[in-house]
Each structure stands twice: as structure tokens, then as C-alpha cells.
Write a structure and sequence with these properties.
This protein is α+β, with helices and mostly antiparallel strands. It is built from nine helices and 20 strands. The chain is elongated. Its cofactor is FAD.
């Protein structure tokens, strides 16, 4: 059981009982771990790896599934985003830009497969063209991300059959990555630093501890107790940690609701994205193709992406569902996807498209909220929760969460310890 594993770690390592000065003057002196990170997706892995680099500390990563990264982290487009869709002041922009730079550096340093493919955003009418002009102005004047207009001659000669009747905008720093390879790399770096990965350990309850004294009355000021099950229906183990990081993705709201009073409970909404594989050899496309974003769509449109072998796939669309476990690709949505794809790739062979896989985006708002140009835009939530000690809460971490993961890890470190090398304020390409 996890509790026994924690006890063995305590016996075998002089670092497992962390001195209070490593976090705060009120943290539990003999907690099993300094940090407990809940959620073994790419964001949780990045956070755990980053925190494990603190000297004389210990970190446990708690994942409910038998393997890391089986939910949103492995059911996406595997795109390294440039950070061009959201407002200058949003966390999605700041963390994506910083995270993109860090991600390319990590992939190159550790041999994680990736490629800087670039992408075109294509417009077919005046309204879509206006959307691209807003993105261009944001990139040029506010966030410093390189983009360029693609002229009509280049579209006709080098566009590989792509239609862009109202223009195209190129994002040269966009790329693709092997998400599974990335997560295995982060897991290896974390374990090499002494981190403990607890798989098949769903969290059942969390208790914020406090001594009740006048100087340490905040919940969590004496650490955190976490009850986990040894698999579905298994025995319950309890571990303690000085700090708690909720990076549970699709389960993050459930973790949040375990801690806060009912009046502060939140609801998560689920936007399913269906992906379609493409078996034809024509047209041959060498870059990513995205339709111009449209307000209220809930996503970035049914776009064309590539895997590292150069194979084309399309998706995701947006299908609002009630169950986060609804991961069967919906074949009935193929005709609608074909219609969207033909707007920018008229030569696509509809007979070569088949449903492939599906993923779920964790949304903090129902249908109707999307980009920063929308009134109901919902940003990432990455914060130390007010009224608690040692709890960093991450909610609504959807796209561009994979690209942002390493920068999110830096931000969590900053929230806990107040300083770091490189911060999310460094918003430059």
C-alpha cells in the first residue's frame, strides 16, 4: 500500500522527514513527503519533476490510473502551440509562450521526438480575415510571437492544395511532439531525482491539518492528509504531505470539492473532441492547417495535424458530453467533419477518413465560452487557494496545457517558494 511505501521511503532516506524550513514555519515536521502532486498527466509530471529538484525534499505523484497520462495528455493533437490565440494578460498566453520555449529545449536536450512544422491559419471570408488580423496585431504589437502573412501567390504555388480565399497567416514556431515520449521523459527525470510515482491510487479523501493556534490556524498549516485506495475498491492508505498540488485534470474539480465547503463547490463541463485518421496519400501536406478561430466554438476548429511519421489526421471537433469517460469516437460526426475540412482542403478524399480516437477537454464553463475575444473566456486557474496553507490548485487546464506544462511547473514552484529561475512574466518568443 502507498502508506507502507511512504514508510519504507522514510526509513531508507534521510530526506523523507523534511525540516520545516523547507516550506513554511508551520508545516508538519514529520510529513511523509514535502510535496504531494495529484494527477499524473503531463502537467502533474512536469510539476513533480520540477519540485523534486529542490534539495532535501521529497515528492510523491499520485495517479488514479495504472499508468501516467492516460486521459487528456495522450488524447490530443500533440501540437506545440505558439501562444497566439489568447489575450496578452492571460495565463494561457504567458504560460504557453514560456512553456513552448522550455518544451523545445527539453525535447532537444533529452531526445524527445518533435518537429517544428509551422502552421497556417486560413480564412475563407471577411469575418475570418478580421479574426486573423486581430491575431496578427496581438502577435506583432503585444506578445512578440513571430507570424507572417502568406501571399496569394505562395498559397497557390506552395499551399499543397489548401484553400485560403481570404488569406493565410503563418505561425513558424508551431510544432508537434511525441506526447507519450515527453511524459516518459518527465517521469524518468522525476524518478531519477528520487520522486515516488504512486500508480493505481485514486484519492478518496483529503484533510487539511492545522494546530488551531493563533499563528497557525489556517487549514493546511500543519500539512495535509490524503487517503488513497489501492486500486478501485482496494484498501485505504493514508499519507501526509507538507504541500498539496491539485493537478488532476479531469478529476481536478472533484479534488477541489473534497477540500472546500459545499458553498464553494465547482462543476466541470466536458467538451469531447473526435479525431479522424486519413489513409489516402493525397493531398500531401507538410504543415499544420487550422481554420481561422470563430468566437463561441469551444475549440480551435477541426484542423489538420501531422504525426511524426507525416501521417495526416483531422480534429478535434467539439461535442459536449456529460461523462468524461465517453471516449468512443462518434462516427455520426464524420459528415460534419468532412464538411468543415473541405472548406480549407477541397481535395480531401472523404472515403479515406475514419473515426480514430477521442479526448475530453475539462471546461470550467458550458458551451459558448472559448477564446479571449469572447465575453465568457475562461483562463487557466493556477493559484494558492486563499484561506489555506500549502495548497496550489490547478483547474480548467485544457489546451494549450501540454505546451504550457513546464511553465506551469515553474509557476507552481514560484507560488510555493516565491522565487525561481525564469518566470511566466518573461513573455517573449
Amino acid at each position: 500500500m502507498l502508506a507502507r511505501r511512504a514508510a519504507r521511503l522514510a526509513c531508507s532516506s534521510s530526506n523523507s522527514h523534511v525540516q520545516v524550513s523547507h516550506f513554511s514555519s508551520t508545516a508538519a515536521v514529520k510529513a511523509d513527503f514535502t510535496h504531494a502532486v495529484i494527477g499524473g498527466g503531463v502537467v502533474g509530471l512536469a510539476i513533480a519533476r520540477h519540485l523534486s529538484r529542490h534539495s532535501s525534499s521529497s515528492t510523491v505523484l499520485i495517479e488514479r490510473h495504472p499508468a501516467v497520462g492516460t486521459e487528456t495528455s495522450s488524447r490530443n493533437s500533440e501540437v506545440i502551440h505558439a501562444g497566439i490565440y489568447y489575450g496578452k494578460s492571460s495565463l494561457k498566453t504567458k504560460l504557453c509562450i514560456r512553456g513552448r520555449n522550455l518544451l523545445y529545449e527539453l525535447c532537444e536536450a533529452h531526445g524527445v521526438a518533435h518537429r517544428r512544422t509551422g502552421k497556417w491559419l486560413v480564412a475563407q471570408n471577411a469575418a475570418q480575415r478580421e479574426g486573423l488580423e486581430k491575431i496578427y496585431a496581438l502577435c506583432r504589437d503585444e506578445i512578440g510571437v513571430p507570424v507572417r502573412w502568406v501571399n496569394q501567390k505562395e498559397i497557390e504555388e506552395n499551399g499543397e492544395g489548401v484553400r485560403a480565399e481570404a488569406g493565410a497567416l503563418e505561425s513558424p514556431t508551431t510544432g508537434i511532439v511525441d506526447s507519450h515520449g515527453l511524459m516518459l521523459c518527465l517521469q524518468g527525470l522525476f524518478e531519477d531525482a528520487g520522486g515516488v510515482v504512486a500508480l493505481g491510487s485514486p484519492v478518496k479523501a483529503i484533510r487539511a491539518l492545522s494546530s488551531g493556534g493563533p499563528s497557525s490556524s489556517k487549514p493546511g498549516s500543519s500539512g495535509w492528509e490524503i487517503d488513497v485506495s489501492d486500486g478501485p475498491g482496494g484498501d485505504i492508505s493514508t499519507i501526509t504531505a507538507e504541500t498539496l498540488i491539485n493537478a488532476a485534470g479531469l478529476g481536478a474539480v472533484s479534488i477541489h470539492n473534497m477540500i472546500v465547503p459545499p458553498s464553494q463547490h465547482k462543476q466541470l463541463f466536458y467538451a469531447k473532441g473526435n479525431y479522424f485518421s486519413y489513409s489516402a496519400s493525397r493531398p500531401k501536406i507538410s504543415r499544420l492547417i487550422y481554420p481561422a478561430p470563430e468566437p463561441g466554438a469551444g475549440g480551435l476548429g477541426t484542423h489538420l495535424t501531422l504525426d511524426l511519421a507525416g501521417r495526416i489526421r483531422f480534429g478535434p471537433d467539439v461535442e459536449w458530453v456529460d461523462d468524461p469517460n465517453d471516449l468512443t469516437p462518434n462516427a455520426s460526426r464524420l459528415d460534419q467533419a468532412v464538411a468543415e475540412i473541405k472548406k480549407y482542403l477541397p481535395g480531401v478524399d472523404a472515403g479515406a477518413l475514419v473515426p480514430d480516437y477521442a479526448g475530453i477537454r475539462p471546461k470550467l464553463a458550458p458551451k459558448g465560452a472559448a477564446l479571449a475575444t469572447d465575453k465568457n473566456f475562461n483562463d487557466f486557474i493556477v493559484r494558492k487557494e486563499e484561506g489555506y496553507e500549502g495548497w496550489v490548485n490547478l483547474l480548467g487546464i485544457e489546451s494549450p496545457g501540454l505546451t504550457s506544462s513546464l511553465a506551469i511547473a515553474e509557476m507552481v514552484d514560484q507560488l510555493l517558494y516565491g522565487s525561481q529561475t525564469g518566470t511566466v512574466e518573461s513573455v517573449h518568443a
